[in-house]
From TrEMBL:
<protein>
    <submittedName>
        <fullName>Tetratricopeptide repeat protein</fullName>
    </submittedName>
</protein>
<feature type="repeat" description="TPR">
    <location>
        <begin position="202"/>
        <end position="235"/>
    </location>
</feature>
<dbReference type="Pfam" id="PF13424">
    <property type="entry name" value="TPR_12"/>
</dbReference>
<dbReference type="InterPro" id="IPR019734">
    <property type="entry name" value="TPR_rpt"/>
</dbReference>
<dbReference type="InterPro" id="IPR011990">
    <property type="entry name" value="TPR-like_helical_dom_sf"/>
</dbReference>
<keyword id="KW-0802">TPR repeat</keyword>
<dbReference type="Pfam" id="PF13374">
    <property type="entry name" value="TPR_10"/>
</dbReference>
Length: 403
């Protein structure tokens, strides 16, 4: 403690100020842009101050451009009085929220965007320019985002917690962060209930139900999805009602009831025809898939082909890959093995390019089946092995064991 105190007293005023504020950061480490938001200084200045703290052995650059503090040093920093801490933490939350919001836009231009107020002064979000940059940022900051959300919850900043949950959905789903997806939306639902906002509650129940469904916790999924439908109706939120019907379709399919899955998917499609064309295309592919599971193959192909054309028309690559995967399945059923391999391979390549590891794993498993049916066992084994590795990394043990 004496050594830490001596090093702290040797800092200049700006360095000491950042040191005290770094104790406010909730996550395991910090980058220059987040430090700049904490201290309300330019990023270049934050980078210089962080380097000075590292030279004083009060922070460690454990990765290039990323700094962390030993627990005892962080405790010492928190013990130093600084009335600016509440404002600094609010700047940090807004930095993460607005950067994550922009990153989610890049990962999926057609996601349901969360409406947020302008960032507070000094919280300047990090500028992301490409989907690859967004993926890298989410990977680097993921634990910090989760920790910041928990710290905001502890301060009863309910709207910010609900908004942060919304910005994390695409990354968590694409990377298969299943348990985090559940935990995030438990917090998001509690925040929405504290806000007394029926529409926010409806979306939170829908996300939590979907998260439970992916985890094969079927009763909990059904409970939350049913509640989402009720609240969406009360709030006259047509988009949430339609999205929840699609989630119910997937939930019932995971329980092995394709008839009920199709009924919910068709209901969703009727609702989506009153909304945007990309959502309608998603619903068309969903209906097509469950028609195929019920052996209504010609109807299924028409729906999936229409979905593929709409997705391509509107430049939605994720939806294009889903439709290609469905068409590959239909080709395999019809004995068109070369076409099945081509469609599944195209879908897997798109998902890989998009960084959607969750869907890439599923599509590789489908591709392996197509290769096996086409009499190409070596290629089938390679695709199954890649699917298995992704499933294991995502802790999707049921799928990994099946593969």
């Amino acid at each position: 403690r004496a050594v830490i105190s001596w090093s702290y007293r040797a800092l200049d005023a700006a360095q000491a100020r950042l040191f005290r504020l770094l104790g406010t950061a909730a996550g395991p480490d910090v980058g220059p842009a987040a430090a700049a938001a904490l201290a309300a200084v330019p990023v270049a200045r934050a980078r210089t101050l962080l380097a000075a703290l590292a030279n004083a052995h009060l922070a460690q650059e454990h990765l290039p451009g990323r700094y962390r503090m030993h627990d005892l040093i962080r405790l010492f920093a928190v013990e130093q009085p600084d009335p600016e801490r509440p404002a600094a933490f609010r700047r940090l939350v807004d930095f993460y929220l607005h950067t994550a919001l922009h990153g989610a836009d890049l990962l999926d231009p057609h996601w349901r965007r969360v409406d947020v107020a302008a960032p507070v002064a000094g919280a300047g979000p990090f500028v992301l320019t490409t989907a690859d940059a967004a993926r890298s940022w989410f990977d680097a900051e993921y634990e910090n985002l989760l920790a910041t959300s928990r710290a905001a919850r502890d301060r009863d900043w309910h709207r910010l917690v609900w908004q942060l949950a919304g910005t994390l959905v695409t990354h968590q789903r694409q990377q298969g962060h299943g348990s985090d997806y559940i935990d995030t939306w438990r917090q998001g639902l509690a925040a929405a209930e504290a806000l007394d906002d029926p529409s926010a509650q409806a979306w939170a129940h829908r996300q939590l139900g979907q998260a439970y469904s992916r985890a094969e916790q079927h009763d909990r999924a059904d409970e939350h999805l049913r509640r989402a439908l009720t609240l969406a109706g009360q709030a006259a939120d047509l988009a949430c009602e339609a999205a929840t019907r699609r989630s119910l379709a997937r939930a019932w399919a995971r329980r092995g009831d394709d008839h009920r899955a199709l009924a919910h998917a068709q209901h969703a499609l009727r609702l989506y025809r009153r909304l945007d064309p990309v959502s309608r295309a998603r619903a068309l592919n969903t209906v097509g898939w469950y028609l195929a599971q019920l052996h209504r193959y010609e109807q299924a192909r028409r729906h999936c082909a229409e979905a593929l054309a709409l997705h391509r028309e509107h430049g939605y690559a994720d939806g294009e890959a889903l439709a290609l995967d469905s068409l590959g399945y239909l080709d395999r059923i019809a004995g068109r093995h070369a076409a099945a391999v081509r469609h599944h391979r195209q879908a897997a390549e798109i998902f890989r390019r998009l960084g959607n590891a969750y869907k890439e794993a599923d599509t590789l498993a489908h591709l392996a089946e197509a290769y096996a049916a086409a009499g190409q066992p070596h290629e089938a084994r390679t695709a199954w092995q890649r699917a298995h590795d992704l499933y294991r990394a995502q802790r999707r043990h049921t799928q990994a064991d099946r593969v």
